[in-house]
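Section: Multi-chain targets

For targets with more than one molecule, the full set of components is provided together so that the structure can be written out for the assembly as a whole rather than chain by chain. Components appear in the order listed by the source. The example entry contains two components.
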Amino acid sequence: MKAPRFELLARDGAARRARLRLAHGTVETPAFMPVGTRGAVRGLGPGELYDLGTELLLGNALHLLLRPGPEVLEKHGGLHAFMGWDGPLLTDSGGFQLFSLASACRPTTPEGVEFRSPLDGARLFLTPESMLEWQERMGVDIAMVLDECIAWPATQERARAAARRTLDWAARSLRARRAGAATAVFGIVQGGTHTALRTACARALADLEFDGYAVGGLSVGEPRALMLEMLEVSLRELPGTRPRYLMGVGTPTELLEAVRCGVDLFDCVLPTRNARNGQLYTSAGVLRLRNAVHRESLLPPDPECACPVCRTHSRAYLHHLQRSGELLSARLNSLHNLYYYQKLMRGLRAAISTGRLEQHTATLYAGWERGTLC
Amino acid sequence: MKAPRFELLARDGAARRARLRLAHGTVETPAFMPVGTRGAVRGLGPGELYDLGTELLLGNALHLLLRPGPEVLEKHGGLHAFMGWDGPLLTDSGGFQLFSLASACRPTTPEGVEFRSPLDGARLFLTPESMLEWQERMGVDIAMVLDECIAWPATQERARAAARRTLDWAARSLRARRAGAATAVFGIVQGGTHTALRTACARALADLEFDGYAVGGLSVGEPRALMLEMLEVSLRELPGTRPRYLMGVGTPTELLEAVRCGVDLFDCVLPTRNARNGQLYTSAGVLRLRNAVHRESLLPPDPECACPVCRTHSRAYLHHLQRSGELLSARLNSLHNLYYYQKLMRGLRAAISTGRLEQHTATLYAGWERGTLC
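Its structure, encoded as tokens over all components, is:
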């Protein structure tokens, strides 16, 4: 296995500007990954994602195992060809879906976890080894280890058991790597909101030779200050020479704060989910398209934005589409929000490169605080 | 008012190849208009529609009157700016929605029709004059007169009353035209499936100075042979020097047959509606994406198609998106179907120009008959 090259280009405080070379291309970090759980980002095709500045996409190994399944993906020669995306791909293992969702008291053994397919009721037994092998077979650039992600709040006992299992599974995942596979493997720090557990988990993972490290189990309901505290606790123990990925986070302000803590990679459903609800992220805070105040507005959603939506459409038109339940509404709103996220990351990369992150942070907040904070 | 120039370029049998110059551009005919009832085509933006070869789009004057309403459209300077589409636009008056839909026994007087907004219960009284004025104010290239469209089957008495009212309203619409307006006005032939009524209605309309003529009230449930018979009866009486538009029709075979009868313009929701149901139009007939036979297929939807979807995606991927209920499914399927319709029209135009329409017709049927006829 050839480790991906992670090249640190600049620092500004704890923030890092770096370049991650993967099997299918290079990712400039800090970077944001749009979410394509089932091999598709909501309403956007691969060419459009590329045009928005996307360099890395996220899929979900568990979802793709259930449907379309291994035969179909192998016939296509992997997930890239199946999706029509030839840039870098990362898959989450499905730990979050297995453990933290509503129906999630799974029969778990030290060996793995039993799971019944919601699609056809088929019973599956998933192990760290089988989920790593599946991700390698899909040919993704980055595979995440199978972890045990717990709900918040959790007792120390529960959090400790999950962190211990996550560590054990992480070590087994590394041993299961196929020699020569082009897929990088990232470990995941768990430990709930317990400082000692986070520290111990991160330290133990750091001793293993992962290509990168993720911080998982955050932004699951805990207050934002606690989330950032647990993030810092986790990052402190991780090697500075490897990429760091904060899973499932977050809003623009959360991304900004996490970048300032030294996070390199992000994914989140918010830009596309909120797009469907008519919430746009802008340089002047959140714009709620359904509000009657936009009914006759000729302004573009964000006068400071150069995205295809802002260059073409008025708030009144987008308000009309949202109120009319037009399919085009979700699409245009998603295009804008994902463009906004990519622009935010570009701005952060440039600010770190030139040592102007504090100044840039103040400018971003000054804008957002003109309206509802993003 | 400056009449649009309609230039006949070639004939092949009854079929016509022509060029229609409108206020916002030129339309090569026979042409197909995608349907953007409320100012948006399902899931596709204006730039994409243009890229697919669209030269004329359809909106609905009644829907747009209810929402967003006159103030919003006037603030934008008309429907073009509101939609972000600067090419030719045609609006239907809403006669079909007023009269032929389920709840459609409207209180109608010789003067006009009373209508209660389904959005806010507001009571509106619509007249041929007010609907023409509204379309002119929106700045569309072609306005349709307010007509009375009846359900099928209808008694001769009912059909006669509707045709008579349609004729009366057509004459009033012409008198209501604003001097100097750039909006062309089309009359609509009604008469149900009664030959004598159709003939009389078309003949009377032909005596009025319309910029073009539509055949309405067809494809509302009657057998296809009867539809084509009524179409021919209607067309026979219309002046050959003006464009002819068959409203709300149809499948690829119906378009082909109607072109052979001498129709120049079409609109229909089928390519986008069937896209959402997973039905793709192809050179080998209808492809039903949900069928299990496509689960592992690496073939593009239509191996003879050069659209962005067929160049990038397999049937298996589109099957997966459809089964997963992904937003991207409707979008990709719509892109393909609208591309297919525009390609069909391009092929028909070329065949008429070169006098090869019969040969081309045979080729199209031979392809479609390999599968389920389109």
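The radius of gyration of chain B is 20 Å.
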